[in-house]
Fold this sequence. Notes:
The protein is mainly beta. It is 0% helix and 54% strand.
Amino acid sequence: VQLVESGGGLVQPGGSLSLSCVASGFTFSRYAMSWYRQAPGKERELVARIISVTGRTNYADSVKGRFTISRDNAKNTVYLQMNSLKPEDTAVYYCNGRFGILDYWGQGTQVTVSS
């Protein structure tokens, strides 16, 4: 099982980044896929989730209206489009796949929002 994130980097406040997570080794279409983040000295928090069957999404209040999660089951990929980025969005962003008790994590990608 692998989840490989990409797309992180340094961006100025107000800018945009798009993260991708490519999955392998499990039936991607069955899994709820999520993005979490962890800032230095803080606990890991859920940013956004997309359900497998309905495609229903939910977001942390802090990113609603700015971030969009999507998935392409044909490509085994989940995306996170991040707009209007703020310094407080700086964190390591992790991809997560969950199905019942099965729970997989990527290694994370650093996002830094700074002028």
